[in-house]
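Anyone? Bumping this.
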Amino acid sequence: MDALDRVVKPKTKRAKRFLEKREPKLSENIKNAMLIKGGNANLTVTQVLRDVYALKKPYGILYKKKNITRPFEDQTSLEFFSKKSDCSLFMFGSHNKKRPNNLVIGRMYDYHVLDMIELGIEKFVSLKDIKNSKCPEGTKPMLIFAGDDFDVTEDYRRLKSLFIDFFRGPTVSNIRLAGLEFVLHFTALNGKIYFRSYKLLLKKSGCRTPRIELEEMGPSLDLVLRRTHLASDDLYKLSMKMPKALKPKKKKNVSHDTFGTTYGRIHMQKQDLSKLQTRKMKGLKKRPAERKAEDEENKSKRIKKN
Amino acid sequence: MEGQSVEELLAKAERDEAEKLQRITVHKELELEFDLGNLLASDRNPTTGLRHAGPTREAELKALARDNTQLLINQLWQLPTERVEEALVARLPEPSTRLPREKPVPRPRPLTRWQQFARLKGIRPKKKTNLVWDEVSGQWRRRWGYQRARDDTKEWLIEVPGNADPMEDQFAKRIQAKKERVAKNELNRLRNLARAHKMQLPSAAGMHPTGHQSKEELGRAMQVAKVSTASVGRFQERLPKEKAPRGSGKKRKFQPLFGDFAAERKSQLEMLRVMNSKKPQLDITRATNKQMREEDQEEAAKRRKMSQKGKRKGGRQGPGGKRKGGTPSQGGKRKGGLGGKMNSGPPGLSGKRKGGQHQGGKRRK
């Protein structure tokens, strides 16, 4: 609904801008994340949420108070928060005896829960436990997924897509090569997922591309997959639908063959073959005497006809 | 001797090169998959090498990460770069991983009543100047808004017109007229909105599960699902207490089987007469109005196309061929062979013309 198409129109320009920022668009805003503590969150889980908030600044909101909800049973309060703060990604932390150090990560479509995956934290090393300099907030991280598990099961595939969505940051067209400082590395091994973040050090290597050295910097988590609540296939397809305007335009009249040659097709107008410019062969050129003789012949022919 | 030293030098240079390249090359069994638009790399190689590691796991993970990052950096350094304010900047391609949207695709708004009319007649908005010269204050003022050029509300004197009641309050009358205009505008806006909403609902709403559908949409979806079987829903069972749907078919009104004999006889004789008559029936006014409307539409469409084409690819040839079919409001059959196009005078002339002017309306095939 357009800001101007509501029954009650916004009275100020500021309100109108606020509504326009939140309405559905062709190319969307960067997804915000909300980080929520459950009723029984412990220190580990709280620290994890704070570290993820540091990674996701300024596209994240950290709620300081505890919220007594259970995401897997009742999603209405999550949806309410999402609507109020215009966030489509969320992370919910809780702790109880049955599920210790629990982290629910999920995303929304149209302010309703699309996917939700529950992960258990087995080991956690925080940002402040590793004492070195950190990179500035808001850097776009590089994401690397290792392990063939990420393509085998549907759960893992959705988890990979969820991680990319969560951590990728704004989509840019240019990037400063010296500003690539931050790597998030996800390894799937033995049913566990190891999440590590490193700071990049570019060393000289003699040629143009530098040699990489890594230094462990940020939060490192050992996660194990627990419950999942994935969207049905048709809802997922609906959420992936791309508007026609953004689909890549096909180039017409250009084709490639298997050897890599590019063929193009040009449409020409009809040529007047009598005026065609062919190769000039000097021997066939009419000499002036010959041309005169031809002209006289034509003239006499015309006189005869008349 | 010299030959040997030259050879040695060459060999040494080669070794140096190989060493340098070795520092940035990484050997992997399966190539990684890159999505440079998202700065993403996926390594499909199985992680069996790390299975046995216990205390050295961190170091092994770090080594794996270093290798993968090196490969990603190699790819990134091969992108086309440019220099922007003394920094080397690489141009990233479009991200290739498809991720779900956060909100649904915006729907195109249906046109308002005025927009439909303007489209039909080919009326384009006139470009107006921002400021207007105000005689009273002797300066340029804006056309509407705060301190506008001709402000009715600020007048201190209103002449009573000749035919008005001398006791009437002209100032109050003006304020009342303004209030009525505002209310009418608001009413039209709300009506346009209601029409737009009604138009949006029939378009397969409720067929896609979005999670927040109304009871009616769910009911309609259930109806459609019931009817979409091979026998068009004839053998679908209903739940024990479910009632049959009301009004789900098209309503057709038939005349009662026997009733008004005179009317029935008259209608049947009329039908026979029409069928027997060799000449086609033609309602001239209707036909001419239809023709005029179609011509208006064609002109409007042509003008729109020309302006669009002029904007996009300036200076190309005129519009493409004649557009087939008019507006949906024009459905229905044409009586009489109005085959060719009639030049009915300048376009934009509205209103009905009497049939007398267009005697040539009847064209026989």
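Late reply, but here is one note on the structure posted above: Chain B has a mean pLDDT of 79.
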